[in-house]
Amino acid sequence: MKIIRSKNDLAIYGAPPAFTEPLHVGRPNIGSREAFMQRVGEIFDSRWLTNNGPMVQELESRIAAQLSVKHCVAMCNGTVALEIAIRALELKGEVILPSYTFIATAHALHWQEITPVFADIDPVTHNLDPAAVRRMITPRTTGIIGVHLWGRPAPHAELQSIAGNRGLKLMYDAAHAFGCSHQGTMIGNFGECEVLSFHATKFFNTFEGGAVVTNNDALAEKMRLMRNFGFAGFDNVIHPGTNGKMTEISAAMGLTNLDAIDATIAANCRNYHVYRETIAAIPGLKLRTYDETERNNYQYIVLEVGDGFPASRDEVIRALHAENILARKYFWPGCHRMKPYRDLYPHAGVMLPNTEAVARRVVVLPTGTALPEQAVESIASVLRVMGPGK
Ligand code: T4K
Question: Which of 24, 129, 140, 358 could form a disulfide with 122 if both were Cys (CB 3.0 to 4.6 A apart)?
């Protein structure tokens, strides 16, 4: 690892890379191995491997307590959790969502033959713009899926008011927002329900996994049945269901990582503050900041490369990759430009100018407990020498 002091030190100009090993965005945060192995032993001893086992139940109650929400229904991944929530809410026809999100949000609708309708985002928050949502409502609209992108809350009060006035159901994709709050209330308590992802790359992981959290008793019960083929007791299926169950081994990982959650937040928070201080001094670059009066997981270090920066976003990515810093262009080019949705809406971009502009500017940088010490200074030094006047 090295500090880059001039352009001659950059790997794109032939110097050795700043890092000998690749730095990934989304390196898993992993709690105590001993505690995990102990739980694995308990699973083998009990011979209870899946189907709502004791570890899954313990994880659900700890997550519900952590978020102060009534129900947590654990699932095998965030995408299936989205599909089950959408199905349980009986959404159909058209559902409004942002295009600037991971493709799974759109796929969870499309997979169920519901038409995803993309609304534009606010270029400052990167979340749904309520005025744009209003413009996309048609007689076929049945719901809105807000996404708390980068763990920052979507504009809940405005979306709730639109949903209430137009008789639509509002749910959230909270895949990025486990451990975050909005106006003092933990995310997980908004809309009809909220969907979490516990994928390996997320702030908190269960290898693969996810959950739907809700304060609605009937909805929670329906989703519990739906994740287990719709079975309500032996030999009695009362809903069309699927297999959305979380395994015990995933829950064991979840319990282990939940014990380490404060340390994970502290590491992310430390990295974020070093990024913020080092990048603030570079003209033309803007780091998305967290509202520190709220609870945050600090999992996403999101940089925007502006017009005042001498290199383009893609040139920045190329230079970082040459240094073995595998920064990502999440969520470029936007769902509407990916083939399944481009085929549906070839001209969607006309309605999504902010989505297109933000998707062209964003670079997501590595963070997490696996990031070596001083790596942030080194990453910032690459950006600094690419900046104006260098
Ligand atoms: N909604 C939103 C808003 C989401 O962001 C996501 C998932 C979902 C819904 C769906 O939830 P899940 O069904 O996934 O639970 C990744 C993740 O696969 C995906 O979970 C995540 N969003 C998305 C933002 O990122 P990729 O294709 O970019 O991941 P991948 O495989 O390139 O991994 C990123 C980097 O992480 C790799 O370069 C290396 C590193 N890595 C990855 C894994 C899996 C590791 O070091 N170790 C690992 O085990 O999608």
Answer: 129
